[in-house]
Amino acid sequence: MAEASRIRVSHDDRQTAIEWDRPPSNVFDLPLLQELTRALREPKTREATVVVLRGAGKGWSTGLSVEDHLKPHVEKMLAAFHDSIEALWDLPGITIAQVHGHCLGGGLELVIACDLAVSSEGAKFGQPEIRLGVFPPFGVAFYHQLLGPKRAAELLYTGASFDAKRAEEIGIVNRVVTERELPAAVALIAASLGGYRPTALRLLKRALRHAEGEPWSSLAFAERTYLHDLMAGPDAEEGLRAFLDKRAPRWKGD
Question: Partner of 96 at 20 to 30 A CA spacing, among 181, 221, 235, 254?
Answer without folding.
Answer: 221
